[in-house]
Backbone:
């Protein structure tokens, strides 16, 4: 069954705040270099890192139960919103998921991402910070959240993120209010 990764279904379940990100404010981003669509990058170099489960790919089916899993669907609309607001954000931005590098490169190229899309298939950032994950089809993926940092120290966490396509505008409002 084919789907449009750019469109969010109207009946998506809303993720609930389970407290899994409450510990993050005040933590320092680790000195962690990962592969990205723009080569190796260090997560400390970004003021905004939005973390998502997995971006959709045209012609590729979603995992069973994806639309019914709170917070799973919406990675492409979220990423495209960050792309569109990137000039206004005025800070270094990166997207990050557990997808392998070839998926991240294809996604970044297809969607003309002006910033790095980071591949973290080993969930290294998650291990360093205790980021929330979920399991689907035997794979562990990140739950959607956005980290805002100042000099590599996390000052704001957006979690849970819903709707995903509004997250970039929420981050922009936060940055403008500082």
Residues:
């Amino acid at each position: 069954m084919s789907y449009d990764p750019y469109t969010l279904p109207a009946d998506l379940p809303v993720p609930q705040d389970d407290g899994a990100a409450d510990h993050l404010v005040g933590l320092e981003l680790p000195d962690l270099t990962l592969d990205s669509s723009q080569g190796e990058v260090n997560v400390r170099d970004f003021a905004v890192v939005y973390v998502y489960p997995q971006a959709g790919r045209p012609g590729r089916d979603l995992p069973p139960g994806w639309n019914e899993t709170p917070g799973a669907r919406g990675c492409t609309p979220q990423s495209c919103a960050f792309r569109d607001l990137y000039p206004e954000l005025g800070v270094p931005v990166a997207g990050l998921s557990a997808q392998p590098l070839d998926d991240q490169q294809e996604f970044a190229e297809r969607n003309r991402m002006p910033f790095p899309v980071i591949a973290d298939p080993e969930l290294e950032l998650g291990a360093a910070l205790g980021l929330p994950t979920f399991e689907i089809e035997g794979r562990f993926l990140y739950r959607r959240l956005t980290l805002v940092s100042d000099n590599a120290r996390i000052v704001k966490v957006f979690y849970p993120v819903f709707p995903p396509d509004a997250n970039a505008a929420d981050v922009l409002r936060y940055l403008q209010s500082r």
Remarks:
- DSSP finds four helices and nine strands in the chain.
- The first strand starts at residue 33 and ends at 34.
- The CA atoms of residues 17 and 123 lie 21 Å apart.
- Residues 75-89 form the longest helix (15 residues).
